[in-house]
Amino acid sequence: MNTTSFARDKGAAPLAGKVAVITGGGRGIGRAIAHAYADAGAAVVVAARSSEELDAVVRSIEAHGGKALACRVDVTDYANVEAMYAQAVEHFGGVDIVLANAGLGTPGGPIETANLDAWKRTFEVNLYGALHTARAAIAPLRKRGGGKLIMTGSGSRHRPMPGLSAYATSKLALWMLTQTLAIEVQDANISVNELIQGPVRTEMTGFGKVAFPPGEWMKEPEDVVPLAMFLATQPLVGPTAQSFSLMRRAG
Ligand SMILES: NC(=O)c1ccc[n+]([C@@H]2O[C@H](COP(=O)([O-])OP(=O)(O)OC[C@H]3O[C@@H](n4cnc5c(N)ncnc54)[C@H](OP(=O)(O)O)[C@@H]3O)[C@@H](O)[C@H]2O)c1
Hints:
The protein has a single domain (19-245), classed as Rossmann fold (3-Layer(aba) Sandwich), CATH 3.40.50.720. The chain has 6 helices and 7 strands. It has helices spanning 28-39, 51-63, 78-92, 116-143, 165-185, 225-232, and strands spanning 19-23, 43-48, 67-72, 97-100, 147-152, 190-196, 243-245.
């Protein structure tokens, strides 16, 4: 196998022939990346819990001449996630790129008084949901001879953020999951990298009402697309176990 040929020399459709699965693809950052991957030639499976949002994304992609499939899934349920990949294989023949993007922002508050159920729920979605999404992807990615696992991280994992402990801690654990899995599947040409987008105006951030570090770049979901495209188009022997960030602060 030529391990340097992933998505190279495909002109205006660098993802032609590829199949991308995007959890949290119904709105926000996932929706923007779903459109971009479809425009780049990939068949895209958009997955989340809200059918209406997923159906709207699929209609929009198809209206632009792309290929897409809506898949209703709760990433906290491993059987659901396995079924998502089964649908991707059934409809589009395999899986090449996975964006583990489904995530939950939890209401803040100091640890002393934090709602412990909300803490657990944050971990169920942000860590276990991503674990399910990555783990169940390995078999279909192996069948294609390799591929990309892109894990949606957060700059909040770099430094303590009082009042956001559950979210930041879940994303810090996700970073260790990313690095460990990357080493475990490296020989299968599966890359596992973290995408950190920094502040983006989405439903999760209350359309900009969350207080972000001063001087940060407040992005629209579309601003994350170039980095997501970069990660999806690296060669099979390209970067793995790395973190790629759009933030403006060190650390
Ligand atoms: N926006 C930011 O500033 C920012 C910064 C750093 C990192 N991030 C990360 O970026 C990712 C996307 O966030 P966003 O800002 O685009 O938020 P968003 O607009 O609220 O989108 C979140 C997506 O995740 C899906 N989701 C949530 N729980 C799910 C579950 N249990 N099963 C399946 N899908 C689920 C949601 O769909 P349903 O509710 O329909 O399931 C939705 O499609 C998250 O991982 C977030 O932590 C965001």
